[in-house]
């Protein structure tokens, strides 16, 4: 046999030896580390709330969906799904989920508050005021965000006539892991 046939094989073997690990595997691989099957799992609700706080709403939605797969559709999971859909601007989905959450757990002020925010965004001011009143009562008046949302809804009900010069723009401000506040823009 001629040396011309073995030349490519020798070249590949020689180049393989030039890598950082030589002929053995290197510790600085570009691949993800292996999974430890004995490792502790992470609570997906906690991860989702942290992602919401970081403004990563699509990732938070995925995390809450994983929590739903692991824990089922508990009121806390449904409230979290509704809150992230609200943050993403998916008002129809958020309203349906938050209504379900308030039906499943009628004692959750966060779910009632977020439902009120959805209703304000959808111009259902009278219903939103009632929802904020309920959230305020369930919270014993301790939450500043709920109180401010109630005040805004009541003020909006009093000035319900449409006037282009009086009309204000409102923005949604996120406070905490699943609390939203409505503020007028200046």
Furnish the topology, listing elements before pairings:
Blueprint: H1 3-17, H2 44-53, H3 57-71, H4 75-87, H5 91-104, H6 109-121, H7 125-138, H8 144-158, E1 170-175, E2 179-184
Helix pairs in contact: 2-3, 3-4, 4-5, 4-6, 5-6, 6-7, 7-8
* CATH fold-type name: Serine Threonine Protein Phosphatase 5, Tetratricopeptide repeat
Helix content: 55-70%
User: What structural class is derived from the secondary structure elements?
Assistant: mainly alpha
Largest sheet: 2 strands, antiparallel
CATH second-level architecture: Alpha Horseshoe
Cα-atom Rg, whole angstroms? 27 Å
Low-confidence stretches: none
Q: How much of the polypeptide forms β-strand, as a percent range?
A: 5-15%
- Spatial strand arrangement across the major sheet: 1-2
Distance between the termini: 85 Å
Shape: elongated
Query: In DSSP terms, counting alpha (H) and pi (I) runs of 4 or more, how many helices?
Result: 8
CATH class: Mainly Alpha
Name the CATH superfamily assignment. Tetratricopeptide repeat domain
Please give a structural write-up:
The protein is mainly α. It has one domain (43-159, 168-184): Tetratricopeptide repeat domain (Serine Threonine Protein Phosphatase 5, Tetratricopeptide repeat). It contains eight helices and two strands. Strands 1-2 form a two-stranded antiparallel ribbon. A hairpin with a 3-residue loop joins strand 1 and strand 2. The chain is elongated and about 95 Å long. 32% of the residues are buried.
Q: What labels describe this entry?
A:
single chain; 186 residues; mainly alpha; Serine Threonine Protein Phosphatase 5, Tetratricopeptide repeat; two-stranded antiparallel ribbon; 59% helix; 6% strand
């Amino acid at each position: 046999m001629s040396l011309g046939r073995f030349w490519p094989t020798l070249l590949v073997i020689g180049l393989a030896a030039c890598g950082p690990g030589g002929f053995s595997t290197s510790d600085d691989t570009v691949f993800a580390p292996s999974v430890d099957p004995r490792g502790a799992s992470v609570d997906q609700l906690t991860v989702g709330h942290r992602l919401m706080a970081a403004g990563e709403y699509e990732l938070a939605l995925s995390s809450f969906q994983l929590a739903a797969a692991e824990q089922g559709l508990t009121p806390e999971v449904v409230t979290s799904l509704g809150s992230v859909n609200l943050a993403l601007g998916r008002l129809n989905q958020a309203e349906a989920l938050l209504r379900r959450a308030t039906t499943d757990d009628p004692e959750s002020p966060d779910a009632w508050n977020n439902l009120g925010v959805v209703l304000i965004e959808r111009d259902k001011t009278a219903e939103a005021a009632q929802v904020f009143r309920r959230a305020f009562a369930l919270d014993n008046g301790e939450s500043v965000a709920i109180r401010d949302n109630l005040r805004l809804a009541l003020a909006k009900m009093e000035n319900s006539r449409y006037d282009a010069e009086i009309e204000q723009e409102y923005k949604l401000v996120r406070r905490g892991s699943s609390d939203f506040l409505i503020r007028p823009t200046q």
